[in-house]
Recover the amino acids of this structure.
């Protein structure tokens, strides 16, 4: 396993440490799997798929299976800030493999306002209790941007009307790890779009602790679960890109693995929604697809158990896992003039990788070529 | 003896951030109630100055639960402004998406958000699975997920959590409250359906994603039509939808319907769910296109619970009041009268049954939600309003569905005007939708044989000014979006959403909105465990992010419509 030996022993050590921690649940995952009618073979398949998704050698598969069994050692607290609950909704859609949701059930989900039965004082008690009881051990997941203007009072929570800002900074202090689930908690999101009336910010801008961003509007359940699994196994942050996104999920551009890429290369573009090219599944670049500038795995993972995804449904990618995309990628159904005409250096600076430079030249060339090829349209 | 204050914050199992406070007398009967949203985001202000084609995708981020509703509303408001008529196929696909959305949304609402107000999880553990399995036949001719073995497995699964005191998301609820009326066996049936519904809702979301790209937050609508033309023209995709549709419809018929019949029986004499309706005016929009000439639901309003008269809506009578909302402006304003800015005044210190807390200052301002009024009166919107208005209109399908249900349960028509009725109406609405969605689908299949167009081209003239709106019915009630376009950009944008109608605070005249009015007179078993309040509030299906995104801007009169797109004043059908 060239180069992976150190990582492998680190993971083994991690499992040893985890297995010595007390379980928060009384039932093993094998038991739960059995009750759900999940075969061990399917479970191993799931572990293999996680291993592949994280781009690790297959030798890691049994480790993921092992660590999944230890998942209940980690209590989770999920906080809602300024948000639309779309990320939570995305998570409850997760089922393929069915083990994903089971893992979530098996993990000790201590606090989640959308799903929990308790309300009011009892809900706050759970939150305080969990933060105290699992001090330094819980994983904090945050959905939604954090309003910071007016001392954070655009959002208050609980009987004592604490600001969202104070709740999240408090919860961050004793968290073992912090994940920003979705574009709002990662980068501020829709409410942070200009003119950002409430001063909404990503969690990493308001807490001192390191934060892993899992952006997307919403992010796929795969990316959420995969990020958790990585933490469970290695106990460290995964390799992150410049926006603190796990590279295994956000390392490729939508464009790189797009099913319509062949049409891009062939200069076959949808010229108008509903035209013959649209019916034939041609490239959506000219309809404003932001796939070339967007780092995510939608083209592989898709949504709703691989049912579909925006480009497949004939609408371009809108760049929803990129910082400030509402402001930088619009109009969403129009190609970005700026990316075609701006200097290459600023493009690199803005988009964040040299790979894009080549693509931009490529797109420019294609767009020009396509103009000649479709004179009647021009 | 002075009233005691009960504070519930957060109200969980809803979308968004909601606080409810009630004042109870010495007998624990609610005298006054206040509802407050505690988050403001300002999305409409953000929409200003953007490309009108972006309106739908951005507005959609108002809410991820009734996702799609605001997407479609944004797209169709812009179409209305530009005078763009999408092709028939596109309209049908949008209707199919709406039907699929309802089928998903109402199942999730009843089972995962509202269900735990009716179902005592702990009680289900003492049930006899065999008895429960037999009992299920009483409520459905062909029950689902209620075989003895299945029920035993459900019990075992939950038992472990309870014994260990490790209830996870089920922890710290009001289990054991005396107003839980299901028998252990009935609780077990419903709990099994709760778990089954987790699976079914995934199928419902897939069904939606076939033409919608993903769920939540679809991405296949554009101004002028839809983009999922490949899916529309694919026999494989069409049949995939049909298969999933049948699975979900099956669950609605055999589980959801049955559970509401069961609830009607068990809770038929439980006082705390037989009130909960203080505002007896109901408003509804038009929705669910079935074919070129027919919609499943029509629009209108009724007053004082009088089903013998139904009226068309006159938009000019709609007003919005911010006397008690955290915005500037002391009296009810005509929407176009100037600029409004947030004016947050916060909470005050007070005593509650749980000790000291921050409480609402109800004499001043206390919510981010405004108070919409029609002819100075408050109106309820939502599935119950939708059914009542259509019942009064003489809509045959609705009359039959309501009649069948009342006959099956032995309840009088008056039972509809209750918390239980509101919960039943949501089920009946989605039952009607799932029964009729196939008509829309068949209309599409028939039409694509000869017509494959899905998109109408359009241009935005930067030298022209445009204005337009969308008005219709969405899962939580009547929704309208209003847009004005100038220099090719959004000049003004306003959304008037269902939860604003229902959750708004008191207005300047002391008129109380549906949430607050619904709680008055409610007796609490234990003010420290106010389950009864949750049950009533959840029956409205709150969607707080929807209702508080509202941001006022400088109003500009649109003379043609005699309403303003500013200030959220206008909601009409």
């Amino acid at each position: 396993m060239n180069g992976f030996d150190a990582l492998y022993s680190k993971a083994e050590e991690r499992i040893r440490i985890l297995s010595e921690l007390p379980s928060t649940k009384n039932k093993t995952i094998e038991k739960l799997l059995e009750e759900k009618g999940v075969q061990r073979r399917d479970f191993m398949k799931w572990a293999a798929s996680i291993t592949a998704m994280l781009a690790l050698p297959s030798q890691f598969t049994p480790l993921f299976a092992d660590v999944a069994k230890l998942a209940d050692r980690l209590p989770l607290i999920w906080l809602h800030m300024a948000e639309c609950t779309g990320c939570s909704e995305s998570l409850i859609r997760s089922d393929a493999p069915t083990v994903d949701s089971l893992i979530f059930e098996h993990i000790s989900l201590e606090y989640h306002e959308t799903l929990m039965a308790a309300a009011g004082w009892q809900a706050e008690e759970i939150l305080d209790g969990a933060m105290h009881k699992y001090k330094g051990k819980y994983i904090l997941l945050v959905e939604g941007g954090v309003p910071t203007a007016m001392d954070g009072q655009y959002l208050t929570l609980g009987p004592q009307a604490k600001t969202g800002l104070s709740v999240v900074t408090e919860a961050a202090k004793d968290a073992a790890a912090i994940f920003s689930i979705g574009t709002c908690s990662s980068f501020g999101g829709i409410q942070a779009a200009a003119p950002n009336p409430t001063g909404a910010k990503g969690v990493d801008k308001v807490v001192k602790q390191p934060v892993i961003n899992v952006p997307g509007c919403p992010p796929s359940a795969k990316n959420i679960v995969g990020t958790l699994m990585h933490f469970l196994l290695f106990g460290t942050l995964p390799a992150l890109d410049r926006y603190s996104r796990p590279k295994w999920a956000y390392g490729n551009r939508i464009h790189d693995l797009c099913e319509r890429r062949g049409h891009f290369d062939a200069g076959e573009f949808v010229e108008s929604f509903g035209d013959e090219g649209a019916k034939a599944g041609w490239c959506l670049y000219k309809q404003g697809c932001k796939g070339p500038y967007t780092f995510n795995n939608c083209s592989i993972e898709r949504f709703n158990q691989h049912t579909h995804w925006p480009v497949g449904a004939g609408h371009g990618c809108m760049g929803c896992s990129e910082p400030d995309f509402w402001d930088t990628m619009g109009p969403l159904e129009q190609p970005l003039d700026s990316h075609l005409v701006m200097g290459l250096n600023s493009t690199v600076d803005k988009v964040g990788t040299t790979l894009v430079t080549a693509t931009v030249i490529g797109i420019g060339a294609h767009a020009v070529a396509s103009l000649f090829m479709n004179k009647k349209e021009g | 003896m002075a009233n005691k204050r009960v504070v519930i914050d957060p109200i969980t199992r809803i979308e968004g951030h909601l606080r409810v406070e009630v004042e109870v007398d010495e007998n624990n009967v609610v005298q006054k109630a206040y509802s407050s949203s505690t988050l403001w985001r300002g999305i409409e202000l953000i929409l200003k100055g953007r490309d009108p084609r972006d309106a739908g995708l951005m507005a959609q981020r108002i809410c991820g639960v009734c996702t799609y509703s605001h997407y479609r509303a944004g797209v169709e408001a812009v179409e209305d402004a530009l005078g763009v008529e999408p092709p028939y196929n596109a309209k049908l696909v949008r209707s199919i998406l709406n039907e699929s959305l309802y089928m998903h949304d109402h199942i999730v609402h009843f089972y995962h958000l509202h269900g735990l107000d009716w179902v005592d999880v702990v009680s289900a553990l003492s049930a006899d699975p065999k008895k429960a399995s037999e009992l299920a036949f009483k409520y459905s001719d062909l029950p689902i997920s209620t075989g003895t073995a299945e029920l035993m497995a459900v019990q075992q699964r939950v038992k472990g959590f309870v014994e260990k005191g490790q209830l996870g998301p089920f922890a710290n609820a009001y289990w054991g409250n005396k107003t839980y009326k299901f028998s252990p066996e009935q609780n077990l049936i419903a709990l099994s359906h709760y778990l089954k519904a987790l699976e079914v809702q995934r199928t419902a979301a897939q069904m939606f994603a076939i033409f919608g790209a993903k769920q939540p937050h679809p991405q296949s609508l554009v101004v002028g039509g839809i983009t999922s033309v490949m899916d529309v023209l694919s026999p494989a995709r069409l049949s995939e939808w049909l298969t999933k549709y049948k699975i979900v419809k099956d669950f609605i018929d055999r589980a959801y319907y049955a559970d509401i019949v069961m609830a009607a029986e068990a809770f038929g004499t439980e006082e705390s769910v037989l009130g909960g309706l203080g505002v007896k005016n109901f408003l509804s929009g038009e929705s669910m296109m079935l074919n070129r000439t027919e919609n499943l639901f029509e629009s209108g309003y009724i007053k004082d619970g009088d089903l013998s008269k139904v009226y068309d809506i006159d938009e000019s009578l709609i007003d919005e009041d911010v006397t008690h909302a955290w915005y500037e402006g002391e009296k009810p304003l005509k929407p176009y009268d100037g600029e409004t800015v947030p004016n947050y005044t916060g909470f005050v210190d007070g005593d509650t049954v749980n000790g000291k807390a921050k409480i609402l200052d109800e004499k001043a301002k206390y919510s981010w939600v405004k108070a919409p009024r029609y002819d100075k009166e408050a109106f309820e919107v939502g599935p119950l309003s939708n059914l009542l208005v259509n019942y009064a209109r003489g809509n045959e399908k609705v009359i039959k569905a309501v009649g069948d249900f009342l006959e099956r349960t032995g309840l009088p028509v008056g039972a509809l005007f209750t918390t239980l009725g509101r919960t039943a109406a949501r089920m009946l609405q989605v039952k009607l939708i799932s029964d009729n969605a196939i008509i829309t689908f068949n209309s599409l299949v028939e039409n694509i044989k000869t017509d494959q167009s899905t998109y109408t081209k359009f241009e935005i003239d930067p030298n022209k000014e445009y204005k337009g709106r969308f008005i219709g019915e969405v899962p939580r009630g009547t929704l309208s979006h209003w847009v004005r376009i100038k220099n090719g950009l959004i000049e003004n944008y306003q959304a008037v959403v269902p939860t604003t109608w229902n959750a708004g605070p008191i207005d300047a005249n002391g008129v109380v909105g549906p949430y607050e009015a619904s709680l008055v007179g409610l007796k609490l078993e234990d003010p420290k465990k106010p389950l009864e309040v949750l049950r009533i509030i959840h029956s409205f299906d709150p969607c707080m992010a929807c209702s508080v995104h509202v941001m006022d801007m400088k109003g500009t009169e649109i003379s043609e419509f005699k309403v303003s797109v500013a200030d959220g004043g206008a909601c009409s059908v």
In short: Chain B touches chain A through 99 residues (CB under 8 Å). Residues 4-116+197-564 of chain B form a domain with the Cytochrome-c3 Hydrogenase; chain B fold (CATH 1.10.645.10).
